[in-house]
Specification:
By secondary structure, the protein is of the alpha/beta class. About 50% of the residues lie in helices and about 15% in strands. Helix 12 runs antiparallel to helix 13. The chain is globular.
Length: about 500
């Protein structure tokens, strides 16, 4: 008999980890040993060092392309959940391919044949991994905000400035003159951005050696940037910067007034209907529109596809759709005993995740201490005259950014705790009481709820068709399934 085939996927989060040889060799050894024990033949290996925060990883995409073409292989071996994906986009892509996934370190296998409760638990783990990214982003934002509040630029400085070191920003002599002249000309209110672009060039102002003329979009961004008045803007709020101003507040305000001559009138808001924007025609795919008839009744119908769709003449009262929405909520409702069962699975399965969290914390802490040591040695070399100021400044900036990144990871890792179990419990609780929650909401909240719950909603001959979004689709599957729940006892093992 031929061996069953599989591919293996290994990933580290940064290029730095790859250079240091961290994790990848250990992952490959683990996966190869597992394949040998399970009598699986490895046909391809995919290894990369890119963050999984955003979809579109190179080797990840190559792996999916390979599996789509392969007639014999539909199995992926990976160390654990957050090695494969950390965002819901990748999760949906893999889920739709119907692959068999072996999470070796977590000791679980997920496939189309898995029970809906196992799929739900797997989705919770994906949510946990995604939450880590969100926490990391939040911690990064805290650090960025603190730096802004102290008056320092984050990252690259705007055109017109240059950095001498991580905390010292000064004027760039030539570029700052370009900025000031642009403000002076535009503030007169009798020149367009395109004409301003040419005027600056004619006066001898060169934007960059490679692009002598500035683009109109670059000009617009420049003229709307408050930093040129000595301020820093972060999430809509202004902070006093420690950098010198290029233009006065009065000149900046005059430039903003010049932009108003191009403003267009705002569109009037349309009447609000509960199912507006949710439904499309099940026959032609055009939008379903709604209108009030006889002064009080709300009716829905197809926009008509230029008169070619027969559904245009079929008007459906909103109350008829309401009754079908009630059925949608009843299909995902779960009994109390099943909710208790899922909550117990959440708690027990998290024990393994706690071990992984501790491992990650130890690694990040080690890297943090290494970087601090390197930074201290760099300062000693500079003080002893063994390196020049430029080298010290560049390296110091690099190490400071590294330290900030590692500290943010460390802070995000600390927040993983019971919060993730609570996220799963919230989902279960919402599903238990989804219908009653829905009925208590106002119109806009109901619309939000329906868009979170449903997708691909069509209306044809008065009948509503739809698909549940994840994780609600799993609860619908659970209710349709007649499988008996596993017995819960003292040796109960969680689905992973």
């Amino acid at each position: 008999m031929k061996k069953a085939t599989c591919v293996i996927y290994a990933r580290v989060s940064t290029k730095g980890q790859e250079r240091e040889g961290f994790s990848i060799p250990a992952q490959l050894d683990l996966l190869k040993q597992y394949a040998k024990e399970k009598d699986l033949q490895i046909v391809e290996e995919f290894v990369e060092a890119e963050t999984a925060k955003c979809a579109g990883r190179t080797k990840f995409n190559e792996m999916l392309k390979y599996l789509k073409k392969s007639k014999n292989c539909n199995t992926i071996l990976v160390e654990k959940t957050d090695r494969l994906y950390r965002n819901l986009s990748d999760y949906v892509t893999i889920d739709e391919l119907g692959l068999e996934l072996h999470f070796v370190k977590e000791g679980c296998i997920v496939s189309d044949k898995s029970h809906s409760s196992e799929k739900f638990m797997h989705l919770i783990k994906v949510g946990m991994a995604r939450q880590y990214i969100q926490n990391l982003s939040e911690e990064t934002q805290k650090g960025r905000k603190k730096k802004i509040e102290e008056g320092y630029f984050i990252g690259q400085v705007p055109y017109g400035y240059k950095k001498l070191d991580p905390r010292t920003t000064v004027l760039d002599e030539n570029k700052s003159k370009f900025v000031k002249r642009a403000f002076e000309l535009y503030a007169k209110e009798d020149i367009s951005l395109r004409a301003l672009r040419n005027k600056l060039y004619d006066e001898g102002f060169i934007y960059t050696p490679n692009n002598s003329k500035v683009t109109t979009s670059q000009l617009e961004n420049m003229l709307k940037n408050e930093c040129y008045t000595g301020m820093l803007k972060y999430k809509g709020k202004l902070y006093q910067g420690k950098h010198p101003a290029i233009v006065s507040n009065r000149l900046f305000l005059k430039a903003q007034q010049a932009f108003r001559k191009d403003n267009k009138p705002k569109k009037c808001d349309s009447h609000d209907f509960l199912y507006s924007g949710l439904l499309v025609c099940g026959e032609c795919g055009r939008a379903i529109t709604c209108e009030i008839k006889y002064g009080k009744w709300i009716y829905y119908h197809c926009t008509g596809n230029y008169g070619k769709c027969g559904q245009k003449s079929i008007y459906i009262r909103e109350e008829k759709i309401d009754k079908q929405i009630d059925d949608i909520f009843s299909n995902i409702n779960i009994p109390e005993n099943f909710a208790d069962y899922l909550n117990k699975l959440l708690v027990t399965s998290f024990k393994k995740l706690q071990i992984m969290t501790k491992e990650k914390y130890n690694y990040i802490n080690t890297e943090l201490n290494k970087t601090k040591t390197r930074q201290d040695k760099l300062l000693e070399l500079y003080m002893d005259g063994q390196i020049d100021k430029k080298t010290w400044s560049e390296k110091s900036l690099y190490y400071e950014e590294q330290l900030n990144n590692l500290q943010n990871q460390l802070d995000a890792n600390k927040t993983k705790g019971d919060k993730y179990i609570n996220e799963g419990k919230k989902i279960i609780e919402v599903v238990k009481h989804s219908h009653s929650l829905y009925l208590k909401q106002n119109l806009h909240e109901k619309q939000k709820m329906l868009k979170i719950l449903l997708s691909k909603c069509t209306l044809k001959d008065g009948k509503l068709s739809y698909e549940y979004n994840r994780p609600f689709s799993y609860f619908a599957e659970m209710n349709k399934s007649n499988k008996k729940l596993p017995r819960l006892d003292s040796n109960q093992q969680p689905f992973d």
